[in-house]
Amino acid sequence: MAGARAAAAASAGPSASSGSPPPQEPGLVELLEEFSRTQYRAKDGSGTSGSRVSRFEKRCLELFGRDYCFSVIPNVNGELCSHYPRQIVILEYVSSEKEKDMFQSTVQVSRLQDLINRSKMARCRGRFVCPVILFKGKHICRSATLAGWGELYGRSGYNYLFSGGADDTSAGVEDVTEEDCALRSGDMHLFDKVRGSDIKLLRYLSVRYICDLMVENKKVKFGMNVTSSEKVDKAQRYADFTLLSIPYPGCEFFKEYKDRDYMAEGLIFNWKQDYVDAPLSIPDFLTHSLQIDWSQYQSWDLVQQTQNYLKLLLSIVNSDDDGGLLVHCISGWDRTPLFISLLRLSLWADGLIHTSLKPAEILYLTVAYDWFLFGHMLVDRLSKGEEIFFFCFNFLKHITSEDFSVLKTQRRKSLPARDAGFSVEDICMLRRRDRGSTTSLGSDFSLVMESSPGAVGSFTYEAVELVPGGAQAQAAWRKSHSSSPQSMLWNRSQPLEERLPSYQGLMEAKSSSSSSSNHSDNFFRMGSSPLEVPKPRPLALSDRKTRLQEVRSAFLAAYSSTVGLRAAAPSPSGAIGGLLEQFARGVGLRGTSTSAL
User: Fold this and answer.
1) Residues 153-171: what's their mean pLDDT?
2) In a designed cystine with 520, which of 66, 110, 259, 424 is the match (CB 3.0 to 4.6 A)?
3) What residue spans carry the Low complexity bias annotation (predicted)?
4) Residue 197's closest CA among 135, 129, 248, 247?
5) Digit-coded pLDDT (tens) for 329-378
């Protein structure tokens, strides 16, 4: 038992064994306390809570400004989106000390705001396509999925149905197709208008790849289609984009994760549920270098599935072309921030983005910006035990190896070895009410397999669809799939004026003697801070591992002191309470007192 306790203490990170707490970002505890008390809303800007949110926003701008020049689009009262930041950051280029006073934006913010206003109705809950990470001159964006007819023809009714209150009992709504509704309204061009605007915004941001995490083709609620997706757009409006359907379990599945004492190994989603109808669909040219057997995706546990999807996203953003990436699920505030946060942290750990930020600072930035200010409903998720937020940062221990480094040119075929012995999953047991979510549009059930993935029973994989490589093969594939736009390839160049300038274009614009601009005075801009920004440098793999371990340790320390780590009733091992106590003391959260956290 003593060996088990030692293994548990070691799994908490380097700080646990040294007896000193990991470095903390000032304000992280306050951020987590606010996050666990209430959901962020842009319009709630007054009072004590509003002042705290202002501090969070200000700190995010400071951290972005360390390494980037950027513009800010105001969303003060939620005019653009009620659950997006009040100051939406548009990263433009990497900055340096000598450039801090020479910031000359080339983003046409007035045009960008117009595109956003026109396109936001195309997406569920108005959560439009928004750039959040800049890597190799390409934007990594996030959004919700496409809105269905129910939302387009009555946003107020949609919010009434899905507000999370007691009114969720409304049922018996007639199941009507988008086309039927368009006919009744007398406006056959409505979807062309709003989705056309959405496509213009995607092109302006130079997005080429769209990764859809939904396990459904269309989300059905109360008998009607409340959302759609690019992969089932019957008019194939998104055929010029490379569409990837990579179904990933919704937030309700993470209650199983919590109920299994935070053990993701062996936890497998039940793909046989009636509502699960989205196949895994990835263009073949994106899979060659990954050495992953995608036909086995239904047998992967939560660790393997998250690892393989992250590898895929990293390979896309690290490609040589200039195409950006959009990641979305249904509402864009559970699965989407999970992968956006993992992308940001993984690229940072390689020393390729946010190069001046320390572990505690990048942790603050991704918690505040990627999760809190983009509307993740932590209060609701905690009350139901759907701990996808905790999973994200605890999962960092599974991506420390070179397999997840974009600096590595050739990936290993095998997955990283699993941690041996007890880990923090063995000791972090939180007491929450045992019920499902009423506000999420995600899934409801899961299948738990205690055995290793190799021992999982048989599955059928007919839904897996990989696009063949080569022009002739792609043409033949398209011909045979003319009614299914799941995996279309980019085949149309767009006018230069319809896109954000590339990094080279930005440099040329900065050196130009022209000072004319097409900017609105209603937008304020911020350049880099006076702090010197080091040039990006590749880090050794040992540095990557250390950096991610420090982020994870800092998160666990702050999370346990705010949201709280509590020992459950006596566990089967009989040692969980003691291990939890040792962890709390090891990271400096508790002295000799035995009072509850």
Assistant:
1) 41
2) 110
3) 1-19
4) 129
5) 999 999 999 999 999 999 999 999 999 999 999 999 999 999 999 999 99
Identify the pLDDT of residue 267: 97
Strands (E), 240-298: 242-245, 267-268, 281-283
Report the amino acid identity of residue 420: A
Global pTM value: 0.71
| Residue 329 designated active-site | yes
Q: Which one from 60, 141, 329, 428 is the annotated catalytic residue?
A: 329
Q: How many helices and strands, by DSSP H and E, does the chain display?
A: 19, 14
Q: Is residue 96 part of a domain?
A: yes
Q: Which residue has the tokens 């992968």?
A: 339
Q: Distance between CA atoms of 431 and 438, rounded to whole angstroms?
A: 19
- With tokens 């398209």, the residue in question is 478
Measured distance CA(388)–CA(220) in Å, rounded = 23
CB atoms within 10 A of CB 534: 12
Residue from 403, 229, 407 nearest 327 by CA: 229
Phi-psi region of 564 (alpha: psi -120 to 50; beta: other; left: phi over 0): left
Least confident of 57-71, 83-97, 357-371, 381-395: 83-97
Enumerate the β-bridge partners of residue 367. Answer: none
Q: Is residue 269 part of a domain?
A: yes
Provide the domain limits for residue 102: 45-156+187-404
Question: How many domains would you assign to the chain?
Answer: 1
Establish if 113 belongs to a structural domain: yes
